[in-house]
Amino acid sequence: MTPSVxxxxxxxxxxxxxxxxxxxxxxxxxxxxxGTAISAWQxxxxxWRQLGVHQAHINRHEAPAxxxxxxxxxxxxxxxxxxxxxxxxxxDYPAKLLEIYDPPPLLFYRxxxxxxxxxxxxxxxxxxxxxxxxxxxxxxxxxxxxSGYVITSGLAMGVxxxxxxxxxxxxxxxxxxxxxxxxTGIEVYYPNHHDKLFDRILxxxxxxxxxxxxxTPPHKHxxxxxxxxxxxxSLATIVTEATIKSGSLITAxxxxxxxxxxxxxPSHIDNSNAEGCHHLIREGATLIYHPQQVLDDVSAQxxxxxxxxxxxxxxxxxxxxxxxxxxxxxxxxxxxxxxxxSPATIPDHLDAVYQQLDWHGQDLDALLLSTALxxxxxxxxxxxxxxxxxxxxxxxRYLRA
Length: 401
Prior knowledge:
Radius of gyration: 24 Å
Number of strands: 12
Distance between the termini: 48 Å
Number of helices: 18
Strand content: 5-15%
Shape: globular
Structural class: alpha/beta
């Protein structure tokens, strides 16, 4: 990647992000007022002051040479392949983050960014979990990753680490199904002794992201920001063990505020390290004791999200089936024969999808990757196969009937 790859607007976005010190409120105020990042960056110091922008941001705005040096440094790192960068207006930016109240205008990342577009489940909890909670977290993450979901967490000690490791402990075909969201800049590994975890995530095809400028150090304010991204990227959040003051309860609250489901694992009533989970359950979180319960609920949520799309396609699929039935003089009027289809009788236009299916089941994300179809095309063909009795859908996974 060369410096010229970044457009003028993208350089302006970086410049603003640097000058407001990654303040979401200040950034969005400036862009919404002036229309574009370029216009906001080119605006006068006095114009910024009239908007009530913090004096520290104004001071940086008054030193454009330092801003240019910072942007040039980032472009050099991009060119050297140290990390990559995506902007909110680009197609590769995760759509789930655009749905939250305050999406970051950019994301620095390393690794496989395609994971950001796949179905994710967040697992969070205590930095000092019990041995039992560590095992539960690892096993749950491994189970969910094997079921096709990406595990998203915050790269912290304790539960976060076990969630990432569980997702990485897969058969070779499923390696790397985890995303780590940093509470520091992309070039600052924290905690320091987690460098091996970071390296393993990247080596196995996972992804690490940060909205902060590359050299941003850890600070008490940066971790709640990270938590909102963990919640925003995911379909649901699981809290495996947490104290009543745990930061993971922030993630759970943000998940709930975003209209998503929160799951919590219970423990002994005298386990102070699990008071946060018990509080969440009392406040309405779903009590779970097996990851399959998460799959059942989340799969129902995913199916609900695509329900409109499927219903709009169903009429077309049924029409195609009726046309083929009416055109054939050998098809009996009794529906019982439809359920006895063999692979040889699968219509040609559905055979490619049918051949990708097995008797264990695959989710939509896996089928989209293996068939290279668009979501409407895939859902339409799966619907036809269901109507033919060749495919069953169980808990959001499709398998041969």
